[in-house]
Specification:
The complex is a heterotrimer.
Chain A: H1 3-26, H2 33-42, H3 44-58, H4 66-83, H5 89-113, H6 118-137, E1 142-143, H7 149-153, E2 158-159, E3 162-163, H8 164-182, H9 184-194, H10 196-201, H11 206-231, E4 234-235, H12 243-253, H13 265-284, H14 291-311
Antiparallel strand pairs in A: 1-4, 2-3
Helix pairs in contact in A: 1-13, 3-8, 3-9, 3-11, 3-12, 3-13, 4-5, 4-6, 4-11, 5-6, 5-11, 8-9, 9-11, 12-13, 12-14, 13-14
Chain B: E1 22-31, E2 34-44, E3 49-54, H1 60-67, E4 75-80, E5 83-85, H2 90-95, E6 98-101, H3 113-118, H4 132-145, H5 162-175, E7 180-184, H6 192-207, E8 211-215, H7 219-225, E9 228-233, E10 236-242, H8 248-256, E11 274-282, E12 290-295, E13 299-303, H9 310-317, E14 325-330, E15 333-335, H10 340-346, E16 348-351, H11 355-359, H12 366-371, H13 375-378, H14 386-399, H15 416-428, E17 434-438, H16 446-461, E18 465-469, H17 473-479, E19 482-487, E20 490-496, H18 502-510
Parallel strand pairs in B: 3-8, 3-9, 6-7, 7-8, 13-18, 13-19, 16-17, 17-18
Antiparallel strand pairs in B: 1-2, 1-4, 4-5, 9-10, 11-12, 11-14, 14-15, 19-20
Chain C: H1 18-23, H2 26-44, H3 51-76, H4 84-100, H5 105-128, H6 134-153, H7 163-170, E1 172-174, E2 177-178, H8 179-197, H9 199-209, H10 211-216, H11 221-247, H12 258-268, H13 280-299, H14 304-330
Antiparallel strand pairs in C: 1-2
Chain lengths: 324, 514, 334
């Protein structure tokens, strides 16, 4: 489907491989499969979140509220677990998905029915959701001793040698891949981003597609709410504070165009892993973690430059080199 | 590729009754303040091309939008095969088999050709998922049937030229077995070769029994390809019939409502010394070694096929692009404008081709549009002086006979012809010496065309010099004192316009030997 | 059409009377909202209506408001800068660094302003020279600038700013009138004049509406945008001086989240996020409203994080209301 897409992913994979190789020169233990899989596991949540954000950005929108959504849903689920430990974890996961979807739908309705620009809507809900987290919890935290064992254990358990958390990510990647490449909804998302007018003529309801995109990002954020609080065994209003930037960074590095219509699942996964490798490598090569922020910033800028390079249209070539 | 010629088709004998495939009757449509269509009727016959002719603002595009379901009529009926149908949305019209190709493609640049053809009706696997393999194969088949087998279904649409994009649009129509194909100014950006290929495609569609609506300003094309014609004027249908046996001037009379004999103003050119001289102007990719002189009081025509590089040369002269070599001199004094502002200061202004995108700033009032390049003169030390701006705008909009309710009106609410007046007013207000007009009457109705030409004559009579870039031979031959012909970025001739034949220009532009 | 005489064909300059359009404007809506919140605050807390209280109120919004003045022009021109809070952090860090080297107050101010200007110029170059979309570029520089602050300072803090430096953020010009509010009023006038009364300001509107036509009309689009980015960075530098002076210390984590509040101020002020329209008066009113809300809630001991719910809802409601109102009036189904 267009060699451009393949190009970008290959470069990104090569860059990641190069980084790993460079670190492995000094610290061979970094390049072992076990180590790399643990990086994947550590960044599974980011991968899942970035996939949700990708869908939104593809429709020429943006969702700044995903991290706050995560915090609220995580708190809600943790508080429920603390108060009613007998509720099965599966039900809590469903609850997380539902709450996340509802919050996403709130964003979506404002964008769809009132036509408010997404950046403005999610700027508002970013603070509203996080403030609501405070109101919900009364400012209190929920930590390990209040969470039930099954709540914490689920995503730590292993299946075929991989932690369940990683499986959540793998399943999400597979679902999104099918969704984006093999369903009408997925293709409508791309069409709406590439050319909204033509999409309308082709029978695609662009507003509704955007709404669905926000529901998807909200649902994903909700799921990650559960994953986050159970992984870090903490639910507080500070959870994932500022994480929205990392999510967008993963997308941008992964080749998703902020102008909409361009981006792939593979690219986003690689973008998140790129940030992951940087994050994991720094402590190994003894660079203070304080460097991480600046390095991610530089990576984002570089990625944007490369994105722009790829989208650049060639200037009119009118002169034919004189053929005798 | 198809090998039929244009005239080789099954034409029903004149007078024989053929059932129309699509009929519109009594269609009316109004917008706030404007009655776009009044009780209009149209019939499209299978296997025949009907030309829709009319000035801008006559209602053609509104009608097309009604036929393709984008607008709904206030009154009237649409029937396919004599069954009344409802077209509440663009998608509904598409499902009914009504498709359109427009000047600007309404397709998806970043999706593949195959997906563009099958978007919305992609083949599915048993599990209900999209079947890409079958889609690609089907796309290949559709393109080959149309004689467009050279297009690769996996290519991004963005990488194709406009002619191929038109083919993909038609391919989309063919994929749903569309029966009605509307073509809105399809030859606008095509080269002569591509126009020939398009006509072959129209032949193919005609033979396949499709009903084709062909909208164009170009009489030579209409007379070549169409079987029937319908003329619109001011939102009403004023004439229809068979092309065969109808004189061109007859159709023009229906369009304009009066006999049009003099389209071009009579002039006695008073040409003085060289004003602007260009030597060896070159650009790495767009043009090479352009040299010519523009004299005072002269209208210099620049002719060539679309994509010959004329606009690029003009934009370089007007300071918008950087050149790699060459010199320019104004009144003997060397100049080197590196920005548009430099050129404006030297008195060289460029009126761009795309009025809406490059000419007016929609969202801003008329007077601010007019004063924009002249802000240096109307402000003092960078501080705005509204009184001066209004005065400037008033002077020049009155001179051009602008129709608007107030100078503070958003320029976006004006009609196309009036917007063009604002653009010209804006440039006149800078009191230029050289005014470059790039396709000034493209897509403009005959009445406004005449106004623009008359105005050009006035300007040169006052001592300005005009360069007109145009792809319309009658305009070039009717207005220019001399004609420069460009081909593929190079100049291929400068012709004096005395006894100049259209064929000479066409041959030069296409590179055909004498 | 009947024959018209030349004089009767004259197109008038304006149709509507300025007074009518002023009453139904966004700015008037903001004035009403501001008065309503002022009244609500007075009723809700006895501490509100006194001179010193109201003076303290100004500290809530002046620093962000200064940046909002410049950000408004940038957004009207069709761009955005999400890195302003990071610029504050970096400028403050470099000022603190200079402080360690014994630089005095005038030098510190110069350092702060220069860092702000340099960061703005960096953003400007990336956007105009490399033609990159400003939203993602400034997400990148946001991390880069704050990242550099972290590299320099880590989790430490710089303290020990000289007393003369404290004047900017803590000093009063006369009675309750703080230096900050005086500076804000002065800059508001300057920016109002720049945007609404100069040809530079006119080009900002033109670029926001149609940058292509602007370029064809001789406007130096890239140069104007570059200047706007520099201006935004400079105002972030000014805000950094004020904030550092007010806090008396520097940490790399200061001003976290300010960029979103600044943008909220700008959008609440009636500037369209899509560019092309807006006014300084609106932005000033929005800054005051946000100050009123946060200060009023603070007097009621509402935690900061809950305050932001109010701000978020205020933003959405104020944007949504005119749209709903228009829908109801026209009777169009949603």
């Amino acid at each position: 489907m267009g060699s451009l897409f393949k190009h970008r992913e290959i470069w990104l994979a090569a860059a990641i491989a190069l980084m790993v190789a460079l670190v492995a020169v000094r610290f061979p233990a970094f390049a072992t499969p076990a180590r790399l899989l643990s990086v994947f596991n550590d960044y599974s949540i980011l991968i899942v979140l970035a996939l949700g954000q990708m869908v939104v950005i593809l429709t020429r929108s943006i969702d700044l509220s995903m991290a706050s959504n995560l915090a609220f849903t995580g708190m809600a689920v943790a508080m429920t677990n603390a108060a009613f430990p007998e509720v099965p974890v599966a039900a809590l996961i469903v609850m997380a998905l539902a709450i996340g979807a509802t919050l996403g739908a709130f964003n979506g309705i404002l964008v769809w029915k009132l036509g408010i620009p997404p950046i403005v809507v999610t700027l508002g809900t970013l603070t509203v959701f996080r403030g609501a987290t405070f109101v919900l919890s009364g400012g209190a935290w929920v930590n390990a001793d209040r969470m039930s064992a099954s709540f914490i254990a689920l995503q730590r358990g292993t299946l075929l040698g991989l932690p369940v958390l990683s499986w959540f990510a793998i399943a999400t990647i597979a679902i999104f891949y099918l969704l984006m490449t093999r369903t009408s909804l997925g293709r409508s998302v791309y069409a709406a981003g590439v050319n909204p007018t033509a999409s309308v003529y082709a029978g695609i309801d662009v507003g509704r597609t955007k709404f669905v995109a926000f529901v998807i990002s909200g649902t994903v954020a909700g799921l990650c709410g559960y994953l986050w609080v159970s992984r870090f065994v903490i639910a507080s209003t500070e959870v994932a504070n500022g994480y929205e930037l990392s999510i967008i960074a993963a997308c941008v590095i992964g080749g998703v165009s902020i102008a909409g219509g361009v981006g792939t699942v593979a690219g986003v996964v690689l973008g998140a892993l790129f940030l992951g490798i940087i994050g994991s490598a720094l402590p190994v090569i003894n660079v203070s973690p304080f460097w991480q922020l600046a390095i991610s910033g530089a990576a984002i800028i570089l990625a944007v430059v490369l994105n722009a390079r790829g989208e650049k249209r060639q200037g009119r070539i009118i002169l034919r080199k004189a053929a005798a | 590729m198809m090998h039929t010629t244009v005239n080789d088709h099954a034409k029903p004998p004149a007078g024989a009754t053929v059932t129309p495939l699509l009929t519109l009757s009594g269609i009316s449509k109004s917008f706030p303040g404007v009655r776009a269509l009044k009780d209009v009727s149209l019939a499209l016959y299978p296997g025949q091309v009907t030309a829709l002719i009319g000035e801008n603002g006559a209602g053609k595009s509104t009608l097309v939008k009604i036929m393709t379901g984008i607008y709904q009529p206030d009154a009237g009926q649409i029937a396919i095969d004599h069954h009344p149908v409802d077209l509440p949305s663009a998608h509904a019209a598409f499902k009914q088999g009504i498709t359109a190709i427009h000047q600007e493609t309404v397709l998806f640049d970043d999706l593949s050709v195959a997906e563009n053809i099958f978007l919305g009706h992609a083949p599915r696997t048993r599990l209900g998922l999209i079947d890409w393999k079958t889609m690609r194969a089907n796309a290949r088949e559709v393109l080959e049937t149309m004689g467009a087998g050279h297009i690769d279904p996996d290519n991004r649409l963005r990488d194709l030229g406009i002619a191929s994009k038109h083919l993909v649009a038609v391919g989309r129509a063919m994929s749903i077995d569309a029966r009605i194909v509307i073509m809105d100014e399809p030859t606008a950006a095509l080269s002569a070769k591509e126009i020939e290929e398009l006509f072959l495609l129209i032949e193919f569609l005609r033979n396949a029994g499709k009903a084709i609506l062909f909208i164009s300003h170009k009489f030579d094309e209409i007379y070549r390809i169409a079987d029937r014609y319908t003329v619109f004027r001011d939102g009403e249908m004023v004439g229809e019939g068979l092309i065969a046996g109808t004189d061109q001037s007859e159709i023009v009379r229906m369009m304009v409502g009066r006999a049009v004999d003099h389209i071009f103003p009579d002039r006695t050119p008073q040409i003085g010394d060289t004003l602007l001289s260009v030597r060896g102007l070159s650009h790495p990719t767009e043009f090479d070694d352009i040299s010519f002189d523009l004299r005072k009081g002269e209208i210099l025509g620049f002719y060539g096929l679309v994509g010959a590089g004329r606009s690029e040369v003009m934009q370089a002269i007007a300071g918008m692009t950087r050149t790699s070599a060459g010199t320019m001199a104004l009144d003997g004094r060397p100049i080197a404008p590196r920005t548009a502002a430099d050129a404006i200061r030297e008195g060289i202004v460029y009126v761009p081709e795309e009025r809406g995108r490059q000419g007016v700033v929609i969202g801003l009032p008329i007077f601010q549009n007019v004063s924009l390049p002249s802000l240096g003169r109307t402000s003092s030390n960078g501080v705005l002086r509204l009184a001066e701006e209004f005065a400037l705008a008033r002077t020049y909009t009155e001179r051009l006979d602008l129709r608007a309710s107030s100078l503070s009106q958003d320029v976006g609410t004006l009609s196309g012809g009036n917007q063009q007046k604002v653009v010209i007013a804006k440039w006149l207000a800078t009191q230029p010496q050289v005014i470059i007009l790039d396709e000034p009457t493209k897509g403009v109705d005959i009445g406004s065309k005449a106004a623009v030409h008359g105005f050009m004559a006035e300007l040169v009579a006052e001592g300005l010099s005009v360069i007109i870039v145009s792809s319309e031979l009658p305009e070039i031959l009717g207005m220019s004192d001399r004609v420069v012909v460009m081909r593929e970025g190079r100049m291929v001739g400068v012709f004096d316009n005395s006894d100049l034949k259209a064929e000479t220009l066409v041959r030069a532009a296409a590179g055909i030997a004498e | 059409m009947t024959t018209a005489t030349l004089t009767s064909r004259r197109i008038p300059d304006r149709l509507d009377r300025p007074l009518t359009s002023a009453i139904f404007s966004w700015e008037m809506l903001l004035v009403v909202v501001a008065i309503a919140i002022f009244v609500a605050n007075s009723l809700a807390s006895p501490y509100f209506l006194n001179a010193w209280s109201l003076s303290d109120l100004t500290f809530n919004f002046v620093e962000k408001g200064l940046i909002a003045l410049a950000m408004a022009l940038l957004i009207i021109a069709g761009e955005i800068d999400l890195s302003v809070a990071a610029i504050i952090a970096l400028a403050s860090t470099i000022m603190g660094l200079a402080l360690q080297y014994g630089v005095g107050t005038p030098g510190l101010v110069l350092v702060g302003l220069s860092v702000g200007l340099a960061c703005g110029a960096f953003n400007g170059l990336l956007v105009t020279r490399l033609a990159l979309p400003s939203i993602v570029v400034t997400i990148g520089t946001m991390s880069l600038f704050r990242g550099i602050a972290y590299i320099v300072l880590g989790d430490q803090a710089y303290r020990g700013y000289p007393p003369s430096f404290a004047f900017f953020g803590q000093g009063y010009v006369w009675w309750v009138i703080s230096f900050e509010i005086v500076l804000f009023c002065a800059m508001a006038v300057v920016f109002w004049f720049l945007l609404h009364r100069t040809s530079f300001g006119r080009t900002v509107f033109v670029i926001g509406n149609n940058p292509v036509a602007a370029a064809f009309s001789g406007v130096r689009v890239e140069r104007v945008k570059f200047i706007l980015f520099c201006l935004t960075g400079l105002m972030a530098g000014v805000a950094s001086v004020l904030l550092t002076s007010r806090l008396g210390s520097t940490r790399p984590s200061i001003a976290q989240g300010y960029e979103l509040e600044v943008i909220t101020m700008v959008v609440l002020g009636g500037v369209s996020i899509l560019g092309g329209s807006g006014s300084i008066i609106g932005v000033v009113l929005a800054a005051i409203i946000m100050g009123l809300v946060t200060f009023g809630l603070g007097l009621l001991n509402v935690p900061g994080i809950v305050m932001s719910i109010f701000i978020g809802l205020l933003l959405i409601t104020v944007i949504a209301l005119p749209i709903l109102w228009r829908r109801l009036r026209e009777g169009t189904p949603a």
